[in-house]
Amino acid sequence: MSAPIQQVRFPARGEFHAAVKQRVEQYFAESGRSPTGDWRMFVKTGTILTWLIGSYLFLVFGTTSLLTTLLAMFALAQGCALVGFNIMHDGAHESYAKSPTINRLMGGMLNVLGGSQRLWRYKHNRLHHTYTNIRSYDDDLETHGLLRFSPQHPWHPWHRFQPYYALAVYSLLTLSWVTVADARKIWSGRIGHTHLRTATWRDISAFVCSKIAYFSYAIVLPLFFHPWPYVLMGFVGVHLMLGITLAVVFQLAHTVDATSFPVPEANTGMMPAAWAVHEVETTANFAPHNPLITWYVGGLNFQIEHHLFSRICHVHYPRISSIVAETCEAFALPYACYPSLWAALVGHYRFLQTLGKRPNAV
Asked: Is residue 14 in a domain?
């Protein structure tokens, strides 16, 4: 990977950001609602955690055949995805509740799933949400050359086949997190080209202890009841399903044919548009009128709203989406929104096709 450009900067906040912020704040003031979670989040959290724990217990103690094992693996993978989309994500963004303690506890569900809340907050909250779709800064675009997610990435001959092998790469997402990727970031003190705050002994101890706890219930405990090949198959299988689920939803937000990949000015690092405009131009929504998808992905189908207002709980996104869309229209800004999940999947496939072509042939 080439060396990063100098520090990226955005122009001063413009009229769009001020207007959309004022209109959304006015909605909450007039409705009397809190921007953080309400009773819906607590009911949802209880439902999801019951699903997660039940599917784990069923996989470890209740499966009696290959079919029931596969069903339990799928159920557990979806339970983990539901926790990530709906509980951990809002907690890490401090939008789950007013209480910082509750937010940190909910964000810490990522540690329970084998990840690292500390790394996620830096990688996702700081880098991805600030430098969306900017090469070398948005680490979500980096796949070590396996996939080409940015027009600024070098092209390799195998990229012409990326629409066909992308799912295989996606399946490795969480398996990589829990085994080597997080440890490498802690050891190197970097996420991509960006240096992390030096980890303290407390940080390292928390990281190691959470990994030990995770592998204890994910692998060690099941070994008391099942042969090791079955345990390994279950562990890997759950992560392959989980990786595909998470990665596909993530990709539908930014790597689709409706989003842009702005480039900073070479000498100054200045972006062509203010941050809020940049977020609208680099982000897409999908299936806004499908309540089942909205519930399942924790409002991440309203990704434009999430990027503009990441500290607002996802249960409010459907309502404020009309405010954001109307404000974008008033300022002649694109508001990319695929009407269905299928349309967004097609948009991602077309993106992979386009970026898979040799650049001078695009």
From this structure: no
